[in-house]
Design a protein that fits this description.
The chain has two domains: 181 residues, FAD/NAD(P)-binding domain (3-Layer(bba) Sandwich); 221 residues, FAD/NAD(P)-binding domain (3-Layer(bba) Sandwich). With 447 residues, the protein is of the alpha/beta class. The chain is globular and about 75 Å long. The strands form eight sheets. A six-stranded mixed beta sheet has the order 5-2-1-9-21-20, with helices on one face. The protein has a four-stranded parallel beta sheet with strand order 13-12-11-17. The longest helix is centred in the middle third of the chain and has 22 residues.
Length: 447
Amino acid sequence: MAQKPQIIIIGAGFGGLLAAQTLAKADVEVTIIDRNNFHTFTPLLYQVATCALDASSVAYPVRSIFRDNHNVHFMLGDVTEIDHEGRSVTIKAGETSYQKWYDYLIFAVGSVTNYFGSKSAEEVAFGLKSAADAIRLRHHILRCFERAAWASDEQERDALTTLVAVGGGPVGLETAGALHELYNYVLKQEYDDRSPRLRARVILLEATDKLLAAYPASLQKSAAKQLESLGVEVLFNSMVEKVEPDSITLKDGRVIRTHTLVWSAGVKASPLVEKLDVTLNPKSARVPVEPTMQVIGRPHIYAIGDVAHLLDKKGQPYPMLIPAAMQQGELAGKNILRELANQPLMNFHYNDKGTMATIGRRRAVAWLYYKIELSGFLAWIVWLVFHLILLLGFRNRVVTFASWVWNYFTYDRSVRIIMDSEVTPRDNPATHRVPDPAPQDVVVAKA
């Protein structure tokens, strides 16, 4: 009996899952390899970091997703080598290394935080690319307020309660707004018994003169206005020069004393792309692919999501966004099945439904189908509905919706427990922050 075609998918992000779901009922064997045994709903990580949601609400076990698909298997581990000539992948799981052969490989390892060459930012700043990152940041913020409540030095107290987000994109806006609401709606009520009272300050740094660069000017202005109405300080034309554990120095010489810097200024393709042994795009370091999503020069390997470099009709690379990764993952799965059936392969056509960003309670902007502009409460409702639909698992949807309702009506966030068992070196008051470990979403990062 002939062996079924073997397909390996590296990464259980949005693109990898859609590829696996496309192949789930076909006459093939699929193996998903991931560093974690769960899929992370990355758009809501900032809510985990700001005590609005528990990490389990944005994570879903990979094995549970494919429980009824007996041709889809999961392997927990790190990919250490890819042999494209021998068509094999080496995986390290604990102290043991395994080698698995494939007929087709789908490369869906996503992106990592881009610090744009700033070594000090990479060593000190907090990223938000994984559930572990979000929990670490949450613990750090809560510990800063606990320390500030008993600090006798006013400057140190203010530094502990000054929270800075870098980057005027959707993640930066969402993080800054959530940080400000965390203090004003929750922590303020619990730390006002101290004398003098704590004063939280949230700052959003943007290197250019506008937020949400890809949005229309009207939505850019609306986003800035909504942030400022919330109480966030928006500093334009402010580039970070140097980052230290207790301060940030801007290129114009200004110094902001803070112990908390959240870096959301951009992402770049996962370093694992180098394992493919192909010439990467010089600007983005992404893997050049054919319109079929096959890696150029490696027809048996498909690259999707944040690692894939493919130009649209305007000559611009497709965005590193979840909808693009999902659609490319589905196409990769379909094209593998078409190739096995000796049918012509299909090219990628992006069905872009627009973009949106939430800023806080009743505050958001949305550009639907790049035609309809929404801001304020209506945009916020659209954002909530869209993210609930995308969230995996009925339980996660119910728990997340219930948490949102509770937070909205009670002005409370219950996920504020600091677990000693989860303390990392960065939580150590003596050091405050240390370099991030490798991202924990997928083999290197998520799509």
